[in-house]
Design a protein that fits this description.
eight-stranded antiparallel beta sheet, 166 residues, 5 helices, alpha+beta, Alpha-D-Glucose-1,6-Bisphosphate, Chain A, domain 4
Length: 166
């Protein structure tokens, strides 16, 4: 099923994706919690991600990079703000230098992901909030909407595999 809707709301400076998965919420949560599963979908297929660090707890950090088709690397970071396992994840996201450290703390987005289970189906909603219209437009021009749609589209394949325990 995957992405059922996306909405670019310039007035509220948000980009909203809703995806549905034919499995329970705990299994969907695993694709965020396990860095090896997260790597398989966080970037679009032509820009796969590698997570060097994933501390999924309030105050925790993530450091990652996505590798482009010609070997170029785009580095990013997260600061986890809040977490309610299998229900809600909130983090700031931004660009990083080659060392994985944030480039500009004023050029971040806030992402809130919620998970709801309804009769064995899980709805995952991701709301990214931007600091300005200019930032939203710049990220849209960089292909964020298409990239996130393609990235989310990879989750079904991961979920079809057996549940991973670690």
């Amino acid at each position: 099923m995957t992405v059922v809707s996306s909405h670019n709301d310039v007035e509220n400076l948000t980009l909203i994706f809703t995806a549905e998965f034919d499995t329970n919420v705990d299994r969907v949560w695993q694709v965020w919690e396990d860095p090896r599963q997260l790597e398989r979908w966080w970037g679009p297929p032509t820009w796969p991600a590698t997570f060097d660090r994933l501390e999924l707890r309030p105050g925790g950090d993530a450091r990652y990079y996505m590798t482009g088709p010609e070997g170029q690397k785009a580095h990013g970071w997260w600061k986890v703000l809040a977490i309610d396992v299998s229900k809600r994840l909130e983090f700031d996201d931004g660009f990083a230098g080659e060392d994985g450290e944030p480039l500009d703390l004023d050029d971040t987005t806030r992402c809130v992901v919620t998970f709801e289970e309804d009769g064995g189906l899980t709805r995952m909603t991701s709301v990214t909030t931007f600091t300005s219209v200019e930032q939203l437009e710049r990220m849209s021009e960089m292909g964020m909407i298409e990239g996130m749609t393609l990235a989310l589209g990879q989750i079904d394949g991961i979920l079809a595999e057996s549940t991973v325990t670690y």
